[in-house]
Amino acid sequence: MAMRALPVGSLHSIMAAVGIVDSGNHMAVVAVSLFVTLLCACIVLGHMMEEFQYISESVTAIFLGFCTGIVVLVTSSGASSHVLQFNEELFFIYLLPPIIFNAGFQVKKKSFFRNFVAIMLFGVIGVFISVAIITAGCKFMFPKLGLEKLVIGDYLALGTIFSATDSVCVLQVLNQDDSPLLYSLVFGEGVVNDATSVVLFRAVQKLALKHFTGMEVLQICGSFLQLFFSSTVLGVAIGLLSAYIIKTLYLARHSTDREIALMTIMAYLSYILAELFYLSGILTVFFCGIVMSHYTWHNVTESSRVTTKHGFATMSFIAETFIFLYVGMDALDVDKWNMVQITAGNYFGLFMTLIVLILVGRAAFVFPLSALSNYMRKSSDTKITFRQQIMIWWAGLMRGAVSIALAFNQFTSSGDAKSPEYAAAITITIGIVLFSLTVFGTATKPLMHWVLLPTSRSELGESEPNTPKDFAFADFHVPLLLGSSQQTGSPHPGPRRSSLAVLLSAPSNIIHDGWRSFDDGYMRPLFGGRGFVPYNTDVLTNAEDDAAYPFHSPFHSRS
Amino acid sequence: MAMRALPVGSLHSIMAAVGIVDSGNHMAVVAVSLFVTLLCACIVLGHMMEEFQYISESVTAIFLGFCTGIVVLVTSSGASSHVLQFNEELFFIYLLPPIIFNAGFQVKKKSFFRNFVAIMLFGVIGVFISVAIITAGCKFMFPKLGLEKLVIGDYLALGTIFSATDSVCVLQVLNQDDSPLLYSLVFGEGVVNDATSVVLFRAVQKLALKHFTGMEVLQICGSFLQLFFSSTVLGVAIGLLSAYIIKTLYLARHSTDREIALMTIMAYLSYILAELFYLSGILTVFFCGIVMSHYTWHNVTESSRVTTKHGFATMSFIAETFIFLYVGMDALDVDKWNMVQITAGNYFGLFMTLIVLILVGRAAFVFPLSALSNYMRKSSDTKITFRQQIMIWWAGLMRGAVSIALAFNQFTSSGDAKSPEYAAAITITIGIVLFSLTVFGTATKPLMHWVLLPTSRSELGESEPNTPKDFAFADFHVPLLLGSSQQTGSPHPGPRRSSLAVLLSAPSNIIHDGWRSFDDGYMRPLFGGRGFVPYNTDVLTNAEDDAAYPFHSPFHSRS
User: Fold this and answer.
1) Cation/H+ exchanger transmembrane domain: from which residue to which, for each copy (chains A, B) (predicted)?
2) Are residue B529 and residue B422 in the same domain, yes or no?
């Protein structure tokens, strides 16, 4: 029985230590038991807290983690703080993939792709702007506040760390059904933003900059674009492969579990293959999720559909709760706090500097890019109003586990801070994350009511149907019609003709229409999808099913 | 980025090595990708192989793993054999719990408890008999065949290792609907047997015997009984707690995912708490599964029910496939084969000795204990016929991952064999497992047809309804009636009166009836269950659902 001395904070290492024979390392089992018990408590408490409308589940989890951290710290007389240390590998390998995959799987595709251009503007260009502002601000202010030994690479890393929006927390605050346009913009941006941040962060680390030239900016951009494109293609390819295999082999003939297993494993395969090819696993698994929900999900039995829908959501939910619990427990890492060698005044100064930089860095791209996006949209009811711009600005201020993970990656080695400056950077990151999640996060819902309530419902972009289910019934006959027109050799020619004229004013609409006829004519017959699977005869059953359970909205279970 | 030199065979360590920055340890990512790809291939191939009735999925997975092992060995010129080494911690912490939990969750409770006495006889007394025979046989034969340096503790360990039936493989060969009595006996025995073997193994290791006295046998028995009882109580307690929480808090009001998450996490909690208190996690999680399927499962929404039913089955399915793939790849551990210092003739002798001992050791308890069980059963149609006894004997001959895990635990430290004798013991264990799974496993289905086909259907114990679903409709009104009678203060008194007289001839039936009235009168009103949940109005929907999908039987998805 190999009982290594393990860093107990890393759960997989803890579990590896839980052998079948009695071990000297029984503390590890205690830690896992504590953690699993806390997870249960979080779910139960989170449910009870939901009565108080403004306390989000993430705040509950952070608070519970924080309290447990204090108890552990007190009972162990300050020795065990290291036990609860954040582990970025655990985060990136186990916790993030299910969250992002589920996000892609449950996202309203129509809404997402209709706002694709705006999402990309916010999620890619926006991050570049934000990184530039935060990096410049840090480089200017930090030496004046006692942090002198950081190099340009560290400042760039800080810029990236504090530009990574917490998409997980955004999901808990906004509601897909109440404000679909806002949700799709903020959430879509969050996912792309996560990927952009991680990719940028890698690019920055790879170049190991001592100085900063225009050539290197171009290099970063080029490398970013290449990564973005390849990751997307890989995710789409694996999603299509899963749809094709399940459609062709008709796995449910022998076992419905096999379908679910194949979907789950292929989703993870997309992530791990992206890592294998040095791509962005986050982007890959996100697009794999989108493709799987568009094709694969319609090729499986009704039981498999219910199971995957809720199973993936549950995995994501557990991972989210785990992360917030973790972040809360991690705030009390006394070793790092003891290493920090700057005065409380300077510390407060650093903290406020970063808060201001985050606020300014986000404002600097949300308002100009919204204007640009509005300029490109033809119809006035899909334009982003000023009130909505304020909400987009505000909802993206939260910083979460991605920031902490990147900070640990940059400023620690094996979990220990490399220097007093780095310890300060870590503790400030944790502080900013806790502050933004609790203060910004808790204030979002009241603010949204205050800012958006005076506006009419139509201004919120309510013109599109509320759920993919509604959407399904609204145009249920369309794919069938188009499918048959394709078979008789006359593909739907309408929207393609005056393409060039409309392209300049409303590029995403024309892309959407073109995609629809391509999808119905070529993709669905090959890869399956709604209306193209022989044993998909249960649309009505499905509708009854939803009507019978008003307790949960099928595609956004946590309101 | 902490990039430790990791034992690559352990998947969680591999994954820990898959960081977000480029690592020198990219081989680890390659290994995970390979493994995940193989899992996909196993599922697809397993599906296609199902056309050939007699090739079970486990054999496909072993074969695929074996071929991959050869390819890796050849391409790496013999160096990489260690990459694919079996990791017992991974097995016991990640792979076994979902399999055993799902077994408890999907088992036909009525069948299981009706045959409870017989199952306990086979699974507990049987293992003791088998261990005694194999230990004695090894102690007598092994020194004559070149293995001289083993002590009594090693022989006892070998006895335990080769008494652990592979319940996973049994599930794949037998069918719950075709032969319910056989299935329930063989499978029930398999689960209890797993737990007994592990508990016995621990007891043997703890005592660190140099000689062997009656006192120590008593000690082992006492420690075993205590463990068995405590583990069961813990599992039942956590299962009931989950039912109570979900019934009282009515989690689905806000989120159906929260119910599923709570069920999953509490199931794992039962396992990890058992480990915390040095109990048998396997037994605990098995009984937790039984209680959850009896109470908790009826307290959740229909969506949650479908999701947990298929979700747990899928997790179990993936874990099973993983194990067999692993066992197949592990057969080619050249390091250990090189360490073995005995002649091929002796090796063959050892191998045949063990095969004979396994056959004899199992026969020595199946036939006498079946006779004992028949003696205790009153009605002739629930007696175990001689043909069925042959099948029980045969179906339990397979040795699987539990044997390998225990062998690694006893004979290696950190994956390396401690001595040439120990290397021999490991390689022989792997050989026996492969042989028994492929030869005994593949022969079981044809044998079952040949032995059982001449018997009439009634002799197979077909008198009870086929699925829990049927059972549900057969007595759907009973719990409601009983529940109301309990509310008006007159609990169902019938079966309790003449208890003592019947108890001697048919103890399990009387226990069953007594339990039923206790369950309906006290347990269901408190913990929920079929017919006791306010929003459980979907029995008909459920029935339609099953009728609409004839492709899978709801409680035993892989036929």
Assistant:
1) 41-450
2) no
Identify whether residues A198 and A212 lie together within a single domain: yes
DSSP B522: I
Tens of pLDDT, residue by residue over A401-410, are: 788 888 888 8
In a domain, residue A558? The reply is: no
Mutate: best of A22, A45, A47, partner B, most B CBs <10 A: A47
B342/B441 same-domain check: yes
Can you tell me which residue has the tokens 């995959």? A101
Looking up residue B224, the CATH number of its domain turns out to be 1.20.1530.20
- Whether residues B256 and A557 touch (CB distance < 8 A) is answered with yes
Residue B64 shares a structural domain with residue B128: no
- Hey, is the C-beta of B148 within 8 angstroms of any chain A C-beta? no
What's the rounded mean pLDDT across residues B132-141? 92
B557 vs A255, A272, A554: nearest CB = A255
Mutate to test the interface with A, among B10, B20, B306 (most CBs of A within 10 A): B20
**3-state secondary structure at position A252:** helix
- Look at residues B233, B217, B81 and name the one whose alpha carbon lies nearest to residue B152: B217
**Distance, C-alpha A21 to centroid of its chain:** 40
Yes or no: say if B558 and A254 are a contact pair by the CB < 8 Å rule: yes
* pLDDT interval class at A2 (50, 70, 90): very low
Range of B74's domain?
Answer: 11-84
Q: Give the C-alpha separation, A142 to A160, whole Å.
A: 16
In sequence order, which residues have a C-beta less than 8 Å from that of residue A59 and are 6 or more positions away? A437, A438, A441, A442
Q: Which tens digits make up the pLDDT trace of A484-500?
A: 333 333 334 444 434 44
Task: Establish if B104 belongs to a structural domain.
Answer: yes
Same domain, B269 and B282: yes
- Residue-wise DSSP of A455-467: S-TGGGTTTS-SS
- End residue of a domain, out of A52, A84, A116: A84
Q: Chain B partners of A30 at a C-beta cutoff of 8 Å?
A: 276
Q: In sequence order, what E strands does A391-513 have?
A: 412-413, 416-417
Residue B490 lies in a domain: yes
Report, as an integer, the average pLDDT of A198-210: 71
Query: Which among B15, B33, B245 has the least Cβ separation from residue A93?
Result: B15
Tokens of A485: 């027109």
Q: In angstroms, what CA-CA distances link A538 with A248, A310, A327, A551?
A: 20, 18, 43, 21
- Do A285 and A344 lie in one domain? The reply is yes
Q: Are residues B415 and B541 in the same domain?
A: no
Give domain status of residue B40, yes or no.
Answer: yes
Q: Is B304 on the interface with A (CB under 8 A)?
A: yes
Domain identity same for A76 and A104: no
Nearest CB to B304; choose among A273, A276, A310: A310
Structural domains of chain B, count: 3
Closest CB from B13, B48, B272 relative to A33: B272
- B206 to A1: CB separation less than 8 angstroms, yes or no: no
CB contact under 8 A, A16 and B10: yes
Contact, A164 vs A361, CB < 8 A?
no
Q: Give the end of a domain, one of A460, A485, A515.
A: A460
Tokens of B475: 């007595």
What are the structure tokens assigned to B156, written together? 């006892």
* Nearest Cα residue to B435 out of B403, B469, B476: B403
Q: Check CB contact under 8 Å for A306 and B301.
A: no
**What residues contact residue B68 under an 8 Å CB cut-off, 6+ apart?**
B34, B38, B328, B329
pTM over 0.80: no
* ipTM > 0.90, yes or no: no
- Integer CA distances (angstroms), B42 to B45, B172, B182, B533, in order: 5, 15, 28, 41
User: For residue A3, what are its two tokens?
Assistant: 């009982």
Contact (CB<8Å) A311/B538 = no
Q: Which of residues 270-289 of B touch A (CB under 8 A)?
A: 272-273, 275-276, 278
